Amino acid sequence: MSLSQQDPQTPAEVAREQVAKARKSRRYAGRRTLWRITGDPACKGCGRALMDPESGVILGQTASGASVLLGVMRCARIWLCPVCMATIRHKRAEEITRAVVEWIGRGGTAYLVTLTARHASKDLLADLMDAIQGSRSGTAAEVRTAKVRVAEAEAVLQAAQEETRAAVTAARLAAPKGQKRAAMAQAKAAAAEGPLGDAGTQLAAARAELTSTRRTPGAYQRLITGGTWAGRPDRDEAGIRDRVGYIGMIRATEVTLGLLNGWHPHIHAIVLVGGRTTGERAEKTVAEVFDPSEEALAEWQDHWRTVWVNSLKAINPKWRPSDDCDRADCPCGGRGHAIDFKRLETEADAEDLAKYIAKTQDGKAPALELARADLKSAQGENVTPMELLYRIGDLTGGVHPDEASGIGTLDWNLTRWHEYERATKGRRAIEWTRYLRQILGIEGGDTQEDDLDLLAGADDEAGELRAGVNITDKGWTAVTAKGLDLAATEAAEGKDGNTDPEAVGVRVREVLALADVAEQVVVLNAGQVAEAYEAMLASLARRREEAAARRRREAEEHDQEDEDRAAVQQRAERLLSRRTTAQPDERDHPALPRIFRP
Description:
The protein is of the alpha+beta class. Among the domains are: 85-135 and 218-375 and 429-446, no CATH class; 140-214. The protein has 21 helices and twelve strands. It has helices at 11-37, 41-45, 82-105, 125-133, 140-174, 180-193, 195-212, 219-223, 227-230, 240-244, 294-315, 347-351, 366-371, 385-396, 410-424, 436-440, 448-461, 473-481, 485-491, 501-513, 526-581, and strands spanning 57-62, 67-70, 109-115, 248-258, 262-273, 275-278, 285-289, 339-344, 382-383, 430-432, 465-471, 521-524. The termini are far apart.
């Protein structure tokens, strides 16, 4: 059946389509605002900078009647870009739904857990994010560079130490009897003021740089550490983790903002319990599924409430959330609102999430509660970051403040947006516990590179190209400058059933004529469109191979880091053992550090 022969839409379907179209238009307008105000170079070029200016861009029409834009750069900024965010979060929500369905289908148990902190208007978003989510870690490249500098500094220090030993020994041999100690001390002091001291300073600086690339735990990390949670293997004591059968969790951080109370970052997490695993790291699999006892579940929830409240209190007492409530009708049961648990009872609960994935988010769908922050509107006097962006676009576009979306003055919104950009840089919006994906058979990862893969995969899923046009660099630059990028992509769609390439060319030229660049369009024949489609698939396959290889490297690096930490612990224990058993035969060299003593 051709598109033109399909059954007419119902009024409800028409209404949904109009809502979806309005949201899409709003997102594209928001991205055009982002081009003007962002400090992120990737966002400035998203959707308008070309991968290869000489090749231009290809607007293709797919078999489903949708349009695909090939050849433009995409930022994949899940925090910032409303266009990229919509696609990425849609795909992330699908992943989360599959994970929850898979786990409940196996007989496991899932909880939606929401974690909040007290906040005030003067609190900086970056500080609050550090408190709940932990400080940002360096990129893989930054960590590798810092490790190389530490290794180089250690080698320099070792060489300086060997030279110092030789100098001290030479001074002792050359000095007359009775002056040997003084000569050795002088040689040591000279080394400390020279190469040895410089080498030590360089090593300290290199180690400080490496430390700065490592994440400082926040309250969230404290939930899944410590002997009470993980147990004490040295005493053969099981922890709460074992008693509830903790498998892992999927964590998403959401941010809203109010005029009175300021930033409100909070965490939604789907926690999977009721299982036992076997194997280590990349070999980990589920060995058993069971129903945790009510006593174990209550112990877990009480423990997390206590750890969450105390961790935030330790970081900053004013961020300590309430852990009690005097409302008789409150569903918290008097336990306060710091942390909330909602159990998903059946597989049907998880399957119902799919109904909401690409539509609205009202707190009824846990997967959407995690992933679809782009569809949320904050309550009352609160706004989401996207509403900041949209209001900035309205106000700078001449819309009266009373008719513009959102709240606050233009300066207030701009200041908050730039603070939001800085505070979220380098952070992951959605993150899975390590190895949880492999346990549940969900491919992919959580990095920005993985988000780029999702964007590319969405183009592939749109279907085979059957018609299209090529727009030159000059033409596309003019289109985006005039804010016609959405109009051009919609012109390439074939929802009217007309799949003739010339008809696509006519529609696109009509849009480009508004920017006086109608001549910058070349209609592609069927063979050329097929070539473009094959090139897209080849590029996607290459990206997926590279992503798989990158994830393997990252897993190996994580495993190596675990082994390195174990080795450091073992060396420390050996050193401590030697020190506690050392004999007092070093009194001949009281002023000389251990490393220089013969």
